[in-house]
Amino acid sequence: MDILQASNYPLPSQSALQLQYVGKHLNDLPTPIPVIDRAVAKRNCNAMLDVCKALGVGFRAHVKSHKTVELAKLQVGHDGPADFIVSTLNEAESLLPFLIESQAAGRQCSVLYGVPIPQSAVPRLLRLAKKLKPGTISVLIDNIDALLQLQEQANAVEDAPTIGVFIKIDTGYHRAGIEVGSNQLPRLVQSAIGSSRQVFKGFYTHYGHSYAGSSEDDAAAGLLAELHGLQAATNHVPQSFKGRVELSVGATPTATAAQNMLQSSGPKVAKFKGLLEGLLEKYKVELHAGVYPLLDLQQVATHARPPDGPSKLGFEPLSKSNIGLKVLVEVSSVYTERAKPEALISAGSLALGREPCKSYPGWGIVASDLGNSKHTVYDESGDKTGWIVGRISQEHGILAWEGKKQGDYQLAVGTKVLIWPNHACVAGAGFGWYLIVDSEQDPCRVVDVWVRGRGW
């Protein structure tokens, strides 16, 4: 079987898409289609790399949110390590040419399969690992039986490649992972360290419930909880272990909360810096995150960073203006006679997602009306006036006007609008590519097309 099973999910030619779209104005394009502002995404990526460098920690970029090679490259920058997390083998296979090229140039690269791997995927993972330097590919393990079956499959392969192993620690999210207090953890650590086919790398946690946070303090508390949890896990590593244990922590709210640590002061900041300093003396520490280059309304609702202030080294405000993804849709009909003005748009749950956002009662907020430069943007923390996606069906949605019937509430049939989605990862999933604009040049003119990976 071909290692690149991505061929089972053929992608359109990027060059053909570029000929079709590059240079076009958004107003002249069919809808719906997702649009990434490259300038915004690049600023968000650079801020993350800058804060990790300033803190003396590594960074591991998750690619599941966008599934593009172009944005993955922005996430790791032009130099230094190129460390990634993937949620599917398709994502890892898509990165393969870049990884081979980087390793040939002497750049450190690694890929972590970011959930406990299904056993049926192990043969494909081993074939992928053979294409790269030993130990480039790692897996997450949180169960002794899964580790033993992984070892059995590797032992059955002639000239099997070396695979890295991180143990997934549950620090409260309860999706995957083993708790630090589990009586199974010591045996799991010992088995991982004693394997002849795998190399024990360290411990990993994902503080996914940080999305429910509502303040900078919440995000900082989550980051501290992750570090404390992995610090406790290291007590099970025998002193005879020769390697340097890696501690990988993060989710976008907690990882980006690290930006506050360079800009703020106070008890939590002092506690974080003291804890991190002690950990770095003994361990390799890295942050990981995925949706931060694009952001979305869910992330803004966490208030994990201040919403304003100047962009500077290691810091970008957490506001709607720094959301890098919008979905271009079109008004198909208008209903001004209803109790509140409404409009039918050419996008529903398959284009925008169906996940709610705790900060407002809708499925997206209209960021701009391409026919109205003075468009009022709904402010969920202010006067709550503007257009939101109030209801969604599968392929269609209803824009609802919130606030008083005055100002620029009217929309016309054929008007194109850009919508900030609640969850960027899901909003992109229904599309085969992103149109790329650059607000430092022209926010409505297409400058590139990035093809998304498909399949698993």
TrEMBL record:
It catalyses: D-serine = pyruvate + NH4(+). GO terms for molecular function: D-serine ammonia-lyase activity; metal ion binding. Residues 324-438 form the D-serine dehydratase-like domain. It is an enzyme of class 4 (lyase). Transmembrane segments: none annotated. Pfam families: Ala_racemase_N, D-ser_dehydrat. Keywords: Detoxification, Lyase, Metal-binding, Pyridoxal phosphate, Zinc. It comes from the Eukaryota. Its EC number is 4.3.1.18. One of its GO terms (biological process) is response to toxic substance. Its cofactor is pyridoxal 5'-phosphate; Zn(2+). Gene3D superfamilies: Alanine racemase (3.20.20.10), D-serine dehydratase-like domain (2.40.37.20). Belongs to the DSD1 family. Catalyzes the conversion of D-serine to pyruvate and ammonia. May play a role in D-serine detoxification. This is D-serine dehydratase.
